[in-house]
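Subject: mismatched residue count in predicted assembly?

I count 370 residues in my input, but I want to confirm that the predicted structure covers every chain. Input:
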Amino acid sequence: MSLVSLGQSVQDIAVFTAVRESRLVYPILLSTHLACIATFGGLILITNLRLLGWTLTDIPTADLIRALRPWKQFGLVVMLTCGVLLGASKASEYLPNPFFQLKMALLVALALHGVYFRRTVYRAAVVAERKARAAAVVSLILWSGVVSMGRWIAYYDPPTAATNLPTANSVRLPTTTCATVAAIQAAALGGPTKIISSTATPSDTCTSTAAIADLAARLWIALVC
Amino acid sequence: MYDTSTNFLNVHEWAYGLTEIVHILSLAVGIGLIALVDLRLLGVAIGRASAERLWKATAVVSLMGLIVAVTTGLMIFSTDPIRYFHHPTMRFKLVLVVMALAFNYTVHGRVVRSDSPRLAASAVAVLSPVMWVTVVFSGLFYAFT
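Triage response: the counts match. Full output below for your records.
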């Protein structure tokens, strides 16, 4: 079963169809999702700043984490509820979207980081300083990634031609994406000047992981050239 | 005459999206840290820290977040100023942002510093996040109206 048809059967469930077709519910959910980032994001940020030892050093880290935990949990529940409703209501568009896939992967990584640092940092009576710094760095990177990928989802142009329908492990990406991937390969061989002059072979089919390479390549091109 | 087609954000494919991401991340920094102070004002104990202590500890980072959010916001505005300026939802948002900023650095700052009455502190702690969340809502509803 392809990701598109799987998504189609998810979004055909009555509640998700209702969300998608409502004129008001969709933007309200989206706004609430974003408002959660704006308000509860601060709780995550202050926890990370304390874990790094940059602020409020007179308050024990464990006390701060314990005080904020129920509020973070509340925020997460609201954010996830809105997120699931939004995502599932357009599942056939989102599941094959490489930025959506990346966002989900980052969320899984966030959960794993929570489990990994649970004993030494998040539920520790006395927090180990070095572990705390590591946890904060990982958390900040992953959360910024989640927010960024969330925004990029909207910028993905799905393939239009029906000749090569997407499957689970082969998703067609816009030609520019494949051109950029080809440009990295050219760059690896010939250096930055080659990128601009290289006429990439416009191959139409790319794996979905090419989107990650695409993002890295474009950033790299912007920095180097 | 200002020509939007020469605007950096309209010329470079990824510039607009990246600016939006910075806008969202920075508003989370700015608004989120204000929300933390509001939580304390509402009586949530955070270690032994007073609201004033939290306000001072977060003031610089929060201000930086707000400055970046306003700057990136103006950058996005510059991509199509006439459309944004005449759109009622965007006008509402802009007025509200100015009000929320003024509120934050006058009333909010004063309530945090002094031993203000419990009721006043609570009222401010409710009004402040309501204003900021409305700013976020109006920013998003602009795209849907």
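DSSP finds eleven helices and two strands in chain A. Marking this ticket as 'not a bug'.
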